[in-house]
Amino acid sequence: MADALKEIGCNKCFGGFLKRYQHQSDSVQCTMKFQVYFPPGAVTEKFPVIYWLSGLTCTDENFMVKAGAQRVAAELGVALITPDTSPRGLNVEGESDSWDFGVAAGFYLNATVEKWKNWRMYDYVTKELPQVLAANFPNLDTSRASIMGHSMGGHGALTIALKNPLKYKCVSAFAPICHPINCAWGQKAFTGYLGAEDKSKWEEYDATVLVERYNGPKMDVLIDQGGNDQFLKDNQLQPEAFVEASKKNNVAVTLRIQEGYDHSYYFIATFIEDHLKRHARALFS
Amino acid sequence: MADALKEIGCNKCFGGFLKRYQHQSDSVQCTMKFQVYFPPGAVTEKFPVIYWLSGLTCTDENFMVKAGAQRVAAELGVALITPDTSPRGLNVEGESDSWDFGVAAGFYLNATVEKWKNWRMYDYVTKELPQVLAANFPNLDTSRASIMGHSMGGHGALTIALKNPLKYKCVSAFAPICHPINCAWGQKAFTGYLGAEDKSKWEEYDATVLVERYNGPKMDVLIDQGGNDQFLKDNQLQPEAFVEASKKNNVAVTLRIQEGYDHSYYFIATFIEDHLKRHARALFS
């Protein structure tokens, strides 16, 4: 696996290095790109990793370009990992017809509909990518990991953390799609990837259903949500449903409505430092 | 003029607001866009302004998306202003044939070649834009202004400050094109916009010539230059020429070679806080 990983980009940034890689993925059977921000530090140091899952239309690059997170990661001594948002280049018929389905819209699930069988971003993010990191980067400590994301990536972070409470030491989200089985984006995606017949498959990837059923160790979840977010108004996000469902069990959700903020990376940039510090506390504790 | 300005974008960001505007420009005779970051503050407060001039291929948006400057501007209580890099939409024959000439390559000069007569970005940035700001935004104090930029925009910042030492209280640059009459980018641009006949016209927009001839009040200039910048290696930037020329007079240049950094916004993001704090000290002194 080490031989298969190819470095395709490198920028020095806040004393560390932002590197971009590509590799042939087993999970999704195509070439996948991802980025790693390595904070400055001694060669012998091992950095915990924070996975960032991006939203619809994004690639592995948006977060590193726009969020201003490297500055904070450099200070905290944590590595940042940004996977892509779907398989690419497979030429599945219709894969690029919509901005909210197919390419750049993987929804961090394992598709069961034959046509979309390569859309296995859940396996890619939770299993293959950590293995690739562990195999290639002795200075990353993938046993100390946490996860966060935005919008579709917030949905990804919440569902993945709820399904793997021992794998991630912290989870938070910006404007996550909290209840996809009950919103237009989610219904379109889940119908396409999971089929319309068996709705129990949908529930496996719905953060609100998962948090209601959660019976793992105590978990804290931080959600920042812009109060002026058009997609909140359009009912795509539904953070209240998630908060309500969380009350029945061992998950403590902090939902902060940030007045005046929208769905953009300007919102994320404003609050990313707070999220990263929270993650670092968990990763170093 | 106030009626002509139209707000076309607004994002809350670090407690303040990033706003995008368009207006019909007298200087360049087309619709121009620019952005303003208003830091948080009382309605009655008046903020000094820092102009950021972007490099080749950029628009008014790149800096605000990528540099992470709003965080610092919010803390310091300064406004950030990003003009576009050239006129657009004039359909001058060949205006988009090159990435380093025409559209997005205005070089912050006033063209004298008839074909490019609308390329008057020097007038736009130094005269019209400050007037538009003063006329429309009572909370911007354009009498307290400073200027900085990157690459072609670093050239713009240096030349504009050297030609207008009383107008700008501070100047700094990231990887500026310091000696355009002596590099490929500059020679192409100046030949096109100013003609090849009279080289004295070129010297009016060459920072190294201008700093050598400077006879204004004492001026400090900070330049950060990535040591791993491909365009430094390609001889497009030539900061040493600028430093050498500055030694003969009343300009103190601090040139910092930042080892390992390239020409990208990751380099700018790393050092922007230091530049902004330096500017704020001058603006508030």
Produce a short descriptive summary.
Two copies of one chain form a homodimer. In chain A, strand 1 and strand 2 form a beta hairpin. Chain A starts with 5 loop residues before the first strand and ends with a helix.
CATH class wording of chain A: Alpha Beta
- What share of the residues of chain A lie within helices? 25-40%
CATH architecture assignment of chain A? 3-Layer(aba) Sandwich
Estimated structural class of chain A = alpha/beta
Q: Roughly how many Å apart are the termini of chain A?
A: 31 Å
Instruction: Supply the number of helical segments of chain A.
Output: 10
Number-wise, the strands of chain A total: 9
Going by CATH, the homologous superfamily of chain A would be Alpha/Beta hydrolase fold, catalytic domain
CATH topology of chain A: Rossmann fold
Order of helices and strands of chain A: EEEEHHEHEHEHHHEHHEH
Q: Show unreliable segments of chain A.
A: none
Q: Quaternary state, please?
A: homodimer
Biggest interface: A-B, 22 and 22 residues
Overall average pLDDT of chain A: 97
Structural domains of chain A: how many: 1
Report strand order across the widest sheet of chain A.
1-2-3-5-4-6-7-8-9
Strand content of chain A: 15-25%
Task: Give the topology.
Two copies of one chain form a homodimer.
Chain A: E1 6-13, E2 16-24, E3 31-38, E4 47-53, H1 62-66, H2 69-76, E5 79-83, H3 121-136, E6 140-150, H4 152-163, E7 171-174, H5 184-194, H6 199-203, H7 207-213, E8 219-226, H8 230-233, H9 239-246, E9 251-258, H10 265-284
Parallel strand pairs in A: 4-5, 4-6, 6-7, 7-8, 8-9
Antiparallel strand pairs in A: 1-2, 2-3, 3-5
Helix pairs in contact in A: 2-10, 7-9
